[in-house]
Structure to design on (175 residues):
C-alpha cells in the first residue's frame, strides 16, 4: 500500500503505469485497486525488501518518494479476522485500518486515545490501528492524528471495504 499518492492532484501515479513498472521489474500477478495506491502482487522476497524495492522503483520512475507499507496475504487475512470493532461498525467506509511499519510507542497510543471523541472508537493490534468514525473524518481529531506524521512510524490507512477487497485479491493471488 502506497501512502499519499493521487490525493488532490499531487504525486500522481497512474495505476496502469505502476502495474507495467512492477511487471517489467519481475513481479508477478500485479494488480491494483482504485487510484490510491493499493497493489497486490506475487514476490519471493521479504516484505521489507519488497517495500524498499517498490519505493525505489516509484521514486526512479515518477520522481518523488513514496512510503510503502506491505502485508502478506496471510497478514491481511489476520487483519480481517480480528476485526475488533466489527460489532459496532455500521458503515465500512467509515471504518479505517491504519497499517504501520512498526507498532506505535505507548505515548503515541495515549495521545490517540485522548483524541477519540464519542461515538468514535479505537483499537490497537500489533502493526494495525482500527478506528471507527461514525460521523466521518472531516472534523475528527482522531483521524487528523492518525493521518498525520505524528505516529512516529510510516503508516497508511484504508477503509474496511478496501481492506476487504485487498484481502480477497491477495487470497486469490496466493492460493
Amino acid at each position: 500500500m502506497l501512502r499519499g499518492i493521487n490525493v488532490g492532484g499531487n504525486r500522481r501515479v497512474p495505476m496502469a503505469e505502476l502495474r507495467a513498472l512492477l511487471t517489467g521489474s519481475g513481479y508477478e500477478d500485479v494488480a491494483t485497486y482504485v487510484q490510491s495506491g493499493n497493489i497486490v502482487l506475487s514476490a519471493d522476497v521479504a516484505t521489507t525488501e519488497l517495500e524498499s524495492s517498490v519505493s525505489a522503483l516509484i521514486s526512479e520512475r515518477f520522481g518523488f518518494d513514496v512510503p510503502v507499507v506491505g502485508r502478506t496475504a496471510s497478514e491481511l487475512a489476520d487483519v480481517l479476522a480480528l476485526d475488533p470493532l466489527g460489532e459496532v461498525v455500521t458503515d465500512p467506509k467509515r471504518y479505517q485500518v491504519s497499517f504501520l511499519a512498526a507498532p506505535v510507542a505507548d505515548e503515541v497510543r495515549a495521545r490517540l486515545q485522548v483524541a477519540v471523541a464519542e461515538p468514535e472508537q479505537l483499537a490497537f493490534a500489533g502493526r494495525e490501528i482500527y478506528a471507527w468514525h461514525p460521523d466521518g473524518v472531516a472534523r475528527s481529531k482522531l483521524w487528523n492524528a492518525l493521518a498525520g506524521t505524528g505516529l512516529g512510524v510510516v503508516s497508511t490507512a484504508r477503509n474496511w471495504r478496501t481492506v476487504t477487497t485487498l484481502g480477497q485479491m491477495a487470497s486469490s493471488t496466493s492460493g
In short: The radius of gyration is 16 Å.
